[in-house]
């Protein structure tokens, strides 16, 4: 699979969010976005990773970074996942896999899960960093370390 590269424009999309609304990537221009593809709601690694983002939420907020999760789960499953772990960021449902395919997070519409990959998108909608070797235990902290230049 061909993952989109640093310097490329982030493919635009609008997906159903866990809160019943929808979210488009274009609507977040002017702020940085960490687009976090996760395998499946309530699996151990994704829960650990999601809790890391939740626990570091204030640092992401201070640095004008919106965390946005994407999986193939239904909005209802994502809502239950967000409620259970008190996630303060949107979880989006990529039911037809089109967004994961566009970003290179899965090879095709038959994929069972997206890969564990994240993209830091700058204020203008350009890919600033690609995280394709993600360890769920320290991924949120690693992103912050990069952003803060630590």
Brief write-up:
This protein has 150 residues and is α/β, with parallel strands linked by helices. The protein contains 5 helices and 7 strands.
Structure write-up:
The protein is of the alpha/beta class and 150 residues long. It has 5 helices and 7 strands, in the order βββααβαβαββα. It has a 7-stranded mixed beta sheet. The chain is globular.
What brief labels describe this structure?
150 residues; alpha/beta; single chain; 30% helix; 22% strand; seven-stranded mixed β-sheet
Element-level helix/strand string: EEEHHEHEHEEH
* Low-confidence region ranges: none
Label the structural class: alpha/beta
Shape: globular
Radius of gyration: 14 Å
Strand content: 15-25%
Q: What is the element layout, followed by pairings?
A:
Blueprint: E1 14-17, E2 22-24, E3 32-37, H1 44-55, H2 57-62, E4 65-71, H3 75-85, E5 91-93, H4 98-103, E6 117-121, E7 127-131, H5 139-148
Parallel strand pairs: 3-4, 4-5
Antiparallel strand pairs: 1-2, 1-5, 3-6, 6-7
């Amino acid at each position: 699979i061909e993952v989109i590269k640093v310097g490329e424009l982030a493919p635009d999309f609008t997906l159903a969010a866990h809160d019943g609304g929808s979210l488009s990537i274009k609507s977040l221009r002017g702020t940085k976005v960490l687009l976090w593809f996760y395998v499946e709601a309530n699996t151990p690694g994704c829960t650990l990773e999601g809790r890391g983002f939740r626990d570091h939420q204030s640092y992401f907020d201070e640095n004008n970074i919106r965390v946005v999760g994407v999986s193939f789960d239904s909005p209802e499953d994502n809502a239950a996942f967000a409620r259970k772990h008190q996630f303060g960021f949107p979880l989006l449902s990529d039911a037809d896999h089109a967004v994961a395919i566009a970003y290179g997070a899965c090879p095709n519409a038959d994929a069972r899960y997206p890969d564990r990959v994240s993209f830091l998108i700058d204020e203008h909608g350009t890919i600033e960093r690609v995280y394709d070797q993600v360890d769920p235990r320290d991924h949120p902290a690693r992103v912050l370390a990069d952003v803060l230049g630590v």
